[in-house]
């Protein structure tokens, strides 16, 4: 029952922040479930199958209810400190964590001193200099500063399938970001004078001082490795402390393409190697100086405490990352069971440790590292249990080469099984997979796990009392890394592996996960023939016609709209960042969104005009997204596989239940000359048959008053239910007469939060208000989706689905 409760707790926590659930109702249902167990035990035999099924189901629900209520209570407390408005300001901070170097800046997490004494953390961005060891604004660990700069709240691109920065900052317990312009160091006397004596006292306690010491040690190793004559400084540091500041982009890219990026995360082997090293030294000392100690205390009881202590110290040393925390909690639970002389079951140990981790930090559930870490452990347990049974079947006098052959078989077999098992998670979280991962992991895991990481840990340990010897070990380890990377470079040259984009929607990923789960179950539990049914369901799902869907994507200050129905798809604009090389809307938003929709190609792409905020993203992804036909008001160079046409008044696309028509421009000669780009935007009218309440949609591009006047003359009887405002709601579009004539049921402004143009403008908002036309903005609601279901159109705003996106 405890196992079922813990599984329920994990499932309930996984729904943290989901709107539409009431935490108080969950508590009431949990109490009713508990009462139901007591009552049902009176009417059903405790050993009967009916009671077991009922009690298991109720305990699972009880755990889910309590887990959900607890997670949402913690979420409510953390969200109350979130910053909502940007401003230029001055703040007092205490530097308690090691900074991280990125390509363009230094990221520094700090504790913010505030009058309310709330536990606030900001993520600072400081300008980066050419060297890793110096910066005009670099902040020193354990010091206080007064900072001046720009405070910016978290605001993500709220689009399905896109990296959620607000969720990531929430999980990291960071309330806002701050771009530093000026820093002034403050001493303790100044901090006391400002009224923060209690903060000084708190930071001088044992636990804060221990954490500060570990951060300083991480910094010391960064500086030491940076100054050593090593070829692979970044890798050695990342494998030792998880600090990726010295890693170059080429190495990161290669590890991603080879599917071995997970080896850069600090996980169980790193932690256990250090603990085993210390315990081995303790064991040798006891044997030499106090062997009789084993007569009084069993050996395992003596080593439990130093082993757990070493695991804890290393977890602190790497910043309590989730994989390391998983190892620590599993060590504590296993040690407790060992002391209590309870039998240790691997699956129960895994579930209990996950439950405890979520009890201490329920926000871990929001991290992909949590699911990948525990998912990989579960899969490895299942794989190695089967292979261990095969090894146990060998006789004791089996030849060594037979055992070696079996070990190699285990290593090789495990790699492709892990690849298959983790495929759904990779598709869900990253939407990409490295097809060469089984081969590269076959080479990298033994090399890094058995040679490089142990030597790294050994060098770090030796460094505390013999820095010269540690430097020699680091250099030898650097040579070992050179051999591995040389082999990977040969494979790279021969195969040139690239990441494969995965375009599975969540339903397909769920079905695939069920199939893989059935595949890995022991024989006899579920017929393997069910796999065939699952694969058939996946195929049917991929060929099932899609209902009508129109999504106005949140692409910041820009516009991009997806329209699909049946097996047809059209995208209107792609949005675009002002510098697609610095941050690509196409690669970071458009492609992930289409992948989440299960689309690897588009039938038609209409670029309403060629302004950067409407078309810039297309040019960054034109080689990665298959497009059959492209329409634009100006000429666009397209790949050979794409057909180009000018969009002009009168063009019509007829789908099963949807008709799409181009209403403007009508002066094709002026359009081809590029005259008045905004006014010559492609204006589209979309109408769906037999749908309520939103049946017709008018997409205005960046068209203004002139085009609106032409539309009023040419299409006076046009029915408009939803109007996507021209030019993002500029005051030079959406005139009063235009809005009054068509009287849409809903207006949508595709605009960025805090954009410098002030879109949608106050004038346009005033016109809409005067005509009682409601308006939704992607800046406030995220992506806005219209989806047909049973003859009605549902309106779904992405930010309304999660509490941290809508508070």
Automatic annotation (TrEMBL):
For this protein, the parts annotated as crossing the membrane are 26-44, 51-71, 263-282, 302-320, 326-344, 356-384, 404-430, 442-462, 468-487, 499-519
Entry keywords, A to Z: Cell membrane, Membrane, Transmembrane, Transmembrane helix
Domain Metallo-beta-lactamase per the UniProt entry, residue ranges: 554-650
Q: Where is the ComEC/Rec2-related protein domain?
A: 239-519
InterPro entries membership = ComA-like_MBL, ComEC_N, Competence_ComEC/Rec2, Competence_DNA_uptake, DUF4131, Metallo-B-lactamas, RibonucZ/Hydroxyglut_hydro
The topology of this chain with respect to the membrane is:
Multi-pass membrane protein
Assigned GO CC terms: plasma membrane
Q: Name one GO biological process term.
A: establishment of competence for transformation
* Subcellular localization: Cell membrane
Q: Which residues form the DUF4131 domain?
A: 29-184
Full protein name: DNA internalization-related competence protein ComEC/Rec2
Tell me which species this is from.
Acinetobacter cumulans
């Amino acid at each position: 029952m405890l196992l079922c409760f813990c599984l329920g707790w994990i499932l309930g926590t996984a729904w943290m922040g989901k709107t539409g659930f009431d935490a108080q109702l969950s508590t009431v249902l949990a109490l009713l479930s508990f009462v139901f167990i007591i009552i049902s035990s009176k009417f059903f035999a405790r050993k009967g199958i009916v009671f077991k099924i009922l009690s298991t189901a109720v305990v699972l629900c009880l755990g889910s209810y309590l887990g959900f209520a607890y997670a949402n209570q913690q979420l409510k407390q953390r969200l109350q400190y979130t910053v909502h408005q940007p401003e230029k300001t001055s703040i007092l901070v205490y530097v308690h964590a090691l900074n991280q170097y990125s390509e363009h800046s230094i990221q520094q997490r700090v504790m913010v001193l505030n009058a309310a004494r709330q536990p606030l953390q900001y993520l600072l961005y400081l300008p980066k200099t050419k060297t890793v060891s110096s910066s005009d604004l670099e902040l020193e660990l354990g010091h206080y500063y007064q900072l001046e700069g720009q405070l910016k709240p978290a605001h993500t691109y709220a689009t399905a399938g896109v990296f959620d920065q607000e969720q990531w900052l929430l999980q990291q317990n960071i309330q806002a970001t701050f771009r530093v312009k000026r820093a002034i160091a403050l001493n303790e006397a100044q901090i006391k004078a400002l009224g923060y004596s209690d903060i000084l006292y708190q930071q001088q306690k044992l636990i804060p001082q221990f954490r500060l010491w570990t951060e300083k040690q991480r910094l010391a190793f960064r500086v030491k490795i940076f100054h050593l004559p090593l070829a692979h400084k970044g890798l050695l540091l990342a494998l030792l402390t998880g600090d990726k500041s010295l890693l170059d982009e080429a190495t990161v890219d290669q590890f991603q393409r080879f599917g071995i990026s997970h080896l850069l995360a600090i996980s169980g082997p790193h932690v256990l190697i250090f603990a085993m090293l210390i315990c081995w030294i303790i064991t040798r000392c006891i044997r030499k100086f106090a062997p009789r100690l084993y007569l009084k205390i069993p050996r395992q009881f003596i080593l439990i405490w130093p082993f757990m202590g070493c695991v804890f110290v290393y977890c602190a040393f790497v910043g309590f990352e989730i994989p390391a925390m998983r190892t620590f909690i599993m060590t504590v639970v296993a040690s407790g069971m060992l002391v209590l002389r309870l039998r240790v079951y691997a699956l129960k140990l895994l579930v209990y440790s996950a439950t405890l981790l979520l009890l201490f930090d329920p926000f871990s559930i929001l991290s992909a590292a949590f699911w990948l870490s525990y998912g990989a452990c579960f899969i490895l347990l299942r794989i190695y249990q089967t292979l261990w049974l095969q090894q146990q079947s060998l006789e004791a006098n089996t030849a060594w080469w037979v055992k070696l052959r079996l070990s190699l078989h285990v290593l090789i077999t495990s790699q492709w099984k892990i690849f298959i098992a983790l495929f759904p998670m990779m598709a869900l979280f990253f939407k990409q997979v490295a097809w060469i991962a089984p081969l590269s992991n076959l080479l990298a895991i033994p090399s890094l796990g058995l040679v490089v990481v142990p030597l790294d840990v050994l060098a770090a340990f030796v460094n505390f009392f013999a820095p010269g010897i540690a430097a020699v070990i680091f250099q030898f380890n650097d040579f070992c890394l050179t051999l591995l990377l040389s082999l990977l470079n040969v494979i790279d040259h021969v195969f040139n592996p690239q990441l494969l984009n995965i375009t599975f929607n969540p339903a397909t990923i769920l079905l695939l996960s069920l199939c893989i789960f059935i595949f890995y179950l022991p024989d006899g539990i579920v017929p393997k023939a069910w796999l065939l049914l699952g694969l058939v369901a996946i195929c049917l799902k991929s060929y099932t016609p899609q209902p009508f869907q129109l999504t106005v994507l949140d692409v910041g200050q820009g516009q991009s709209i997806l329209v699909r129905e049946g097996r047809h798809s059209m995208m209107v604009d792609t949005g675009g960042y002002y510098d697609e090389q610095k941050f690509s809307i196409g690669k970071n938003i458009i492609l992930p969104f289409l992948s989440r929709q299960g689309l690897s190609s588009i039938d038609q792409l209409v670029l309403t005009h060629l302004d950067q905020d409407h078309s810039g993203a297309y040019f960054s992804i034109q080689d990665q997204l298959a497009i059959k036909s492209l329409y634009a008001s100006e000429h666009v160079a397209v790949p050979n596989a794409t057909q180009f046409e000018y969009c002009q008044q009168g063009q019509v696309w007829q789908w099963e239940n949807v008709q799409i028509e181009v209403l403007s421009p009508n002066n094709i000669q002026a359009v081809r000359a590029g005259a008045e780009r905004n006014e010559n935007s492609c204006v589209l009218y979309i109408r769906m048959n037999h749908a309520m309440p939103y049946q017709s949609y008018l997409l205005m591009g960046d068209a203004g008053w002139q085009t609106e006047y032409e539309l009023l003359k040419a299409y006076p009887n046009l029915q408009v239910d939803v109007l996507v405002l021209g030019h993002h709601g500029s005051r030079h579009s959406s005139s009063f007469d235009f809005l009054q004539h068509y009287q849409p049921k809903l207006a949508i402004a595709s605009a960025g939060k805090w954009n410098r143009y002030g879109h949608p403008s106050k004038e346009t908002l005033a016109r809409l208000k005067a005509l009682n036309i409601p308006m939704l903005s992607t800046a406030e609601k995220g992506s806005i989706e219209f989806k047909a279901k049973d003859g009605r159109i549902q309106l779904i705003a992405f930010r309304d689905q999660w509490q941290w996106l809508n508070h």
